[in-house]
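A.,

Following up on our hallway conversation. Structure tokens first:
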């Protein structure tokens, strides 16, 4: 085995952890079903994905994808317009691919979760009631029936790796399922709203931007409690709370 200088903890919380050992990423998950989904989804997806090196119960090892992340929440993306367009074109291919066998959360479940999290944010004084009310109003545009598509489920910009204008690979497929294509686009542009046009240049402009804005609100409202309870700060500049505040200016 090739010696390495260190083991880097990429992310770690009570549900899962990802470690980097040289050019190998090792994912440890308390729910092995998520790793099963990840492996199968990468095999089905018509876009570049990491090489699976080995798989054992609760553990998955994948090869490093070359290049730089398309962006990171809380920091303006420095990737080129061409890279964003390439990512958009790849996501369009994914959304038009045959459906995977797993179904993501349904509309009724998502509405119930959203209402629960809105109540918690207000009851615990985490956010002003008017801010939550306004974003719940914006969120309504996203909460409509959708045609199921093959979705990644967690298309953060840090899950895309690019070199110049080229897409090298998309990582972290454990949430892949049948879902709403516009939710994927919303997650990609969360906190990167100024890059939406670049993304749509590759994806196509036949989308309802009001629905994407609605998903920005849904995603930020429903993720906040989990982030707080797992040691992350949604009030970091450019992150979820700033996304919610921006809706007051729409």
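Then the amino acids I'd put at each of the 250 positions:
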């Amino acid at each position: 085995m090739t010696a390495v200088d260190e083991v880097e903890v990429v992310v770690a919380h009570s549900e899962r952890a990802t470690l980097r050992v040289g050019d190998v990423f090792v994912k440890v998950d308390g729910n092995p079903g998520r790793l099963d989904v990840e492996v199968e989804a990468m095999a089905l997806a018509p876009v570049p994905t990491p090489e699976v090196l080995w798989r054992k119960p609760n553990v998955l090892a994948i090869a490093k994808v070359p290049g730089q992340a398309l962006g990171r929440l809380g920091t303006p993306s420095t990737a080129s317009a061409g890279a964003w367009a390439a990512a958009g074109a790849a996501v369009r291919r994914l959304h038009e691919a045959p459906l995977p066998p797993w179904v993501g959360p349904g509309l009724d479940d998502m509405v119930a979760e959203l209402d629960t999290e809105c109540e918690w944010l207000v009851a615990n004084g985490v956010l002003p009631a008017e801010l939550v009310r306004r974003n719940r109003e914006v969120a309504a545009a996203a909460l409509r029936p959708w045609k199921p598509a093959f979705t990644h489920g967690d298309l953060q910009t840090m899950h895309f790796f690019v070199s110049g204008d080229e897409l090298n690979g998309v990582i972290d497929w454990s949430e892949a399922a049948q879902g709403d294509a516009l939710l994927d686009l919303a997650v990609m542009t969360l906190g990167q709203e100024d890059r939406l046009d670049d993304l749509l240049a590759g994806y196509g402009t036949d989308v309802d931007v009001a629905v994407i804005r609605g998903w920005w609100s849904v995603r930020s409202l429903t993720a906040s409690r989990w982030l707080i309870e797992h040691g992350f700060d949604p009030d970091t500049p450019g992150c979820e709370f700033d996304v919610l505040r921006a809706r007051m200016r729409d």
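The first strand starts at residue 7 and ends at 12. Curious whether your intuition agrees with the design.

B.
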